[in-house]
Amino acid sequence: SRQDIDNDVMVSLGGYAAEHEFYNSSQCLLGSGSDLEAAWDSMSEAAYKLGYFDPVRFSNYESLAGPDVAPGMDHRKDVYYYNGQESIQQRMPIDDAVERRFNDLLGKTKQIIRDEKELIKEIALELGERGSMKTERFMEYVEKYGRKLTPESMEEIKKAQDPEFYKNMLV
Fold first, then answer.
1. How many C-beta neighbours within 10 Å does residue 137 have?
2. What is the Cα–Cα distance from 68 to 58, expressed in whole angstroms?
3. What is the per-residue DSSP string for 118-137?
4. Is 89 in a helix, a strand, or coil?
5. From first to last of its 171 residues, what are the pLDDT tens digits of the chain?
6. Judging by DSSP bridges, how do beta strands 56-59 and 78-82 pair with one another?
7. Phi (first) and psi of residue 63, to 5 degrees
8. Residues 139-168: b if buried by 16+ CB within 10 A, e if exposed
9. pTM of the entire structure?
10. Which of 56, 97, 138, 141 is deepest in the core (most CB within 10 A)?
11. Do the Cβ atoms of 92 and 79 come closer than 8 Å?
12. Does residue 79 contact residue 58 with C-beta atoms inside 8 Å?
């Protein structure tokens, strides 16, 4: 689902966003580059192969020829897509649509990191000392340091994400 893809992208962006929040960008580690690449790959694949912007209607096909392009390969340049508001459809190059959504998700990820900065810092310090954390200990930290992430909010998230959703749609 789109929500699953959004979550996957945001998880991939989490380390990058956290490094930028806690350290300045000149102190970020090389691993954040692979985080960005994984997030971009997920978003691009969802757009080009999985119908993320569905309903989508491709237009302005351009067939390129040359040694680097397979014969007859279509290059989709423009896309109409539903942007979440029933009355509004936007037309833009699909790469621009991917970039816009990617940046939206990066902004949401950064906001979550800012909202939960103290929680993340305390968990990171604990993990740095001990290397791992049991679920019970994690929940103690959530209760003590979480702002928007609370045990109650986590329970609501679990309820909203029905693991039987797809199965139930078929019966």
1. 13
2. 23
3. HHHHHHHHHHHHHS---HHH
4. strand
5. 788 899 999 999 998 898 888 887 667 666 777 888 899 989 988 887 777 876 554 443 343 444 454 444 444 444 445 455 544 455 566 777 888 889 999 999 999 999 999 999 999 999 999 999 999 999 999 999 999 888 888 888 777 777 777 777 787
6. antiparallel
7. -95, 125
8. eebbeebbeebeeeeeeeeeeeeeeeeeee
9. 0.72
10. 97
11. yes
12. yes
Tally Cβ neighbours within 10 Å of residue 64. Answer: 10
Residue 66 φ/ψ region, left for φ over 0, alpha for ψ in the -120 to 50 degree band, beta for the rest: left
- Whole-angstrom distance, CA of residue 45 vs CA of residue 165: 23
- Would you call 96 helix, strand, or coil by DSSP? helix
- The two structure tokens encoding residue 88: 């509004």
